[in-house]
Design a protein that fits this description.
This protein has about 120 residues and is mainly β. It has a single domain, classed as Crystallins (Gamma-B Crystallin, domain 1). Helices cover about 10% and strands about 35% of the residues. The protein is built from 1 helix and 9 strands. The strands form 2 sheets. It has a 5-stranded antiparallel sheet with strand order 1-3-2-5-8, with no helix packed on it. Strands 4-9-6-7 form a 4-stranded antiparallel sheet, with no helix packed on it. Strand 6 and strand 7 form a beta hairpin. It is globular, with a radius of gyration of 20 Å. The N terminus is likely disordered.
């Protein structure tokens, strides 16, 4: 809503319009992309989220995906560990397009793939 203020003239109206038209902050989703965090983040344990790590020890580069849906998600790096808090199994793939052999990560669980190698995509 834009409110016109008479005392500030055009500057006040312009400032109010800029605030009204500014995009609102929303959490990252699988479709909008991940939120990158340093090492571990408490959001990795938030219901509905998937966290992927480039280290099998759950440190290093970490990407948090919120509101994950059933679409194939290409990870921003090779995933060697993941935390699945979606309430559903998540399948991780060695390909970037969710094809081929997958590793299923059970709901509300975490896992690393040190011996299997990096995974590059996932989907519920």
């Amino acid at each position: 809503m834009i409110r016109i203020v008479r005392r500030g003239g055009a500057a006040a109206v312009g400032a109010m319009a800029a605030v009204a038209l500014a995009p609102s902050a929303s959490p990252a989703s699988a479709t909008s992309g991940p939120t990158f965090v340093d090492n571990w983040d408490a959001r990795c344990l938030t219901q509905g989220n998937v966290c992927v790590h480039d280290s099998a020890y759950f440190d290093g580069r970490t990407a948090v995906y919120e509101s994950v849906d059933t679409e194939c998600v290409t990870a921003p790096f090779g995933v060697l560990a993941a935390v699945n808090m979606t309430g559903k199994p998540v399948n991780f793939y060695a390909t970037a397009d969710c094809t081929g052999r997958s590793y299923a990560e059970p709901a509300e669980n975490f896992h690393s793939w040190l011996s299997a190698g990096a995974q590059y995509s996932f989907r519920i």
